[in-house]
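Our preliminary data section would be incomplete without showing what the modeling component actually yields. Below, a chain of 603 amino acids is followed by its predicted structure, encoded as tokens that our downstream tools consume directly.
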Amino acid sequence: MRRMRYVRNCAFFLAALLAALCLLRPQGALAAAPAHIHAWLRTGMAQASCTEAGQAQYVCAVCGETMTETIPAAGEHLWTESVQQAPTCAAPGQMLYACARCGETRVEALPAVAVHSLREAVLQPLTCGQAGQIRYTCAVCGKTFDETVPPTRAHRFAETRLQPPTCTQEGFVERECLVCGSAVAERLCPNAGHTWLDTVSAMPTCLQAGQMVSTCAVCGKTRTSRLPNTNVHEWAQSSVTDPTCIKPGKIGYYCTGCGIERTEETPATGVHSWDTGEITSAPTLTGIGIKTLTCTGCGLTRTEAVPSLNDEKYAAAIAQLPTYIPPAPVFTAAHDTFTFVMYGNGDGVGMPQQGAIEMAKVGLPYDYILSYYYTGTAIVQDAAMPAVSYYRGSYVNTEELLARIIYMEIGDESPYEAQKAQGVTAYTMLKYYNFYVTDSTYFHVGAASSSYAACPETVRRAAHEVVGQYMIMAGDPNREPALAEYHDMCAGHTLNAIDAWGGGTFPLGVPSPFEACHPDFITFYSCSSAEMRDRILRWDPTVQLSANPAEWIEILSHDASLDENRGYVTSLRIGNKTLDGIGRFNTRILDLKTSCFTVVYTP
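Predicted structure:
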């Protein structure tokens, strides 16, 4: 296919060439044309110039006939130009013209130009207040021209002087140009307002208006203005009557403006103001004494221990003992609920374990702790300590049993001297029961841990140091063990045995506020009215209870061991019946943790 297309293209080209040659044939030749069409081919050429004709020679490619053809002259030159010398402001130039066909040349003059090649030089700098001058010099001909440029008038002013306006004269500001030194002045607003300084000449009161005098600090002019009365009394204290624990106080006031008077009542403090006290039981060398203090406000009395005569060495430690009694708590109870707020834990007789812990914390030794809580006793060594003791079904090593009781009752986290004090009380009670403890008497001696192996080393060491030591009443020739009852914590002071149990002369009660700082000093017990009715009627079916549970229980009296509102309950009304004696309600009707409590019914 490519070859056939090439042959076809060649035939087309040959036919076109023959037709062109025929058209170029001279007219005369056409008249005498042979029987074929000439295919002229050019064989020579003499180009025509601008003034002379040229010739072209042809030969027929078919028959060889020749032909000459004349090419007429162009008739005009085809000029091209080139600058031979450029004109300047000082001299003309030359332009050369050459014919592109025949090469003929000619020269024309170019006139001098009117434009200079200028260079400038500043003769005088231009500023805001001064004209500038520039000189231009032609680099070709050396001719010079001078030009003056007017000032810019764009000053850079700086403030040089300021006179503020006052209430009596106008002010001004002066400025000077930092470049040319030109100065200008500008008026400021005249007669500014007065600069008033106020002075109160008469203070207003609740009923009377006051007066203020204002003076201008510049011109001295004055003006007076009225200050309205305040309608508010300015009270000053005139008299004070201090409140007491049960009686409110009074504070008298008068108004400094109008003289009116008023009084204000201050609530009773609820805090007793104790006098210096009176020694009602003198201390001895081995035992404490008792001091009775009386409240100067209400006449209530309380007792304090007076250190034994050899207690001076412990004065610093005793002074560190906590004595803070917490106030009655605020609480919210459910509907139809009796709430008992209890203080302390236990029957309150003998040594409170938490009190012993607090005394040991400040550095008091175990023998001092025991002499404080067991007034009139002495510690002696048992000359016939048995190797084993009977304890609730089995015989055990006495020292090991003592360690087990210490660990169970007061624990190894209590101070070491408190553990030893617990050990002496436990051993005293073991001896009191002749080292034979049954299920009905063990709670007087103390609960024992499961085994001696469970006791920490500190507890074992405390038991080893005090085993065999027990308390007797001082001077007892028979060296009989004292009744060394103990409990968890008391409510302000320990109880006399006769008050708590209705009999016995020992132990005696002593002040003991030390454990009131314990977090479990205050606890709560709640029950519904239905449960309370059931407990009361089980105690005595003949008790008459009203329809209002708030009337069922009333504390008639207490011993004020904490304050005038709180103490061990000594008398209680239940419906139409009365219970007298500390612990009667607790043991007969409701098993509370302590006999020091208050009760509130929430409807």
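The radius of gyration is 67 Å. The chain has twelve helices and 36 strands. Preliminary results of this kind motivate Aim 1 of the renewal.
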